Amino acid sequence: MNKTVNQKAWFLVLPVLVLVAFSAVIPLMTVVNYSVQDSFGNNEFFWAGLEWFDELLHSERMWDALGRQLAFSAIILAIQIPLGIFIALNMPKKGVWVSVCLVLMSLPLLIPWNVVGTIWQIFGRVDIGLLGYTLDALGIDYNYTQDPVAAWITVIVMDVWHWTSLVALLAYAGLQSIPEAYYQAAKIDQASRWKVFRYIELPKITGVLMIAILLRFMDSFMIYTEPFVVTGGGPGNATTFLSIDLVKMALGQFDLGPAAAFSLMYFLVILLISWVFYTVMVNLDKRDGV
């Protein structure tokens, strides 16, 4: 006897498919179309094939921006993941202070990106900013508009302040899901604090840490608003990451073909590295679960 399949469910999914088509697929196809063509104005396009991709692969400018982007993401992950775990481990698990800590940790996440950039732009200024004025009073030469090292430190500290809360909240949620019986057994065995973390807490929060690493990598790799507001990609090209370089190419120079090819390569790099992160962490999780 053949089972009747109800196809009416597709009508419920159809609005979502249409929305995704308009918001993602159609713009993506437009970018693909631009990436293989050239334009000389008057809305006239000429076939260019893979010329823009070949040009970008041999572009020192793009490779420099990619190097800066990878360095930034690596530094961000190296700081925010351990710091977020440390904060989560020291947050209260019971009582009224739990709500207070959760609210305080959520506040930076609620601030829009452009506002965060504006805050730190003013905060770091020597003439009116508290941080810049204090460092200058202490005799520390700090000027993020002229010193590349100061610019990098400012952008990194700004991102750590803005997004470490996300890692901490995810890690805290994972810690809260650990049954109390695990801690009682560890106490009976007189396990040290490090062993409790290594063999109980860390394996149990691996899943949420995988999500945190993926989210923070993708976001840090696509960062644009905050460094653009604070440094504008400077001084020189010190903080010109891939996203800033892409916007300069598309809007500043109005090179639509190279910019479209650049954006596709940018997307593929993010997709590839995210897939590598995901595969490695899933394999580690399976190995630890054996």
3D architecture notes:
With 290 residues, the protein is mostly helical. Helix content is 74%, strand content 2%. The protein contains 13 helices and 2 strands; from the N terminus they run H-E-E-H-H-H-H-H-H-H-H-H-H-H-H. Strand 1 and strand 2 (45-47) form a beta hairpin. Helix 7 runs antiparallel to helix 10.
**How much helix, percentage-wise, in residues?**
over 70%
> Can you give the mean pLDDT?
86
CATH fold-level name: MetI-like fold
Total helices: the number is: 13
Q: How does the overall form come out from the CA principal axes?
A: globular
Structural class: mainly alpha
Query: What kind of oligomer do you see?
Result: single chain
* CATH homologous superfamily designation: MetI-like
Q: Quickly count the domains.
A: 1
Supply the CATH architecture. Answer: Orthogonal Bundle
- End-to-end CA span: 42 Å
| Weakly predicted, low-confidence segments | none
SSE pattern, N- to C-terminal: HEEHHHHHHHHHHHH
The largest sheet, given as strand count, sense and whether it forms a barrel, is:
2 strands, antiparallel
Spatial strand order of the main sheet: 1-2
Number of strands: 2
Structure keywords:
290 residues, MetI-like fold, 74% helix
Give a brief rundown of this model.
The chain contains 13 helices and two strands; from the N terminus they run H-E-E-H-H-H-H-H-H-H-H-H-H-H-H. The chain has helices at residues 9-35, 51-57, 60-90, 96-110, 113-123, 130-137, 148-176, 180-188, 193-204, 206-221, 225-230, 242-252, 256-289; strands at 37-39, 45-47. Helix 1 packs across helix 13 (256-289), helix 4 (96-110) packs antiparallel against helix 7 and helix 7 (148-176) runs antiparallel to helix 10.
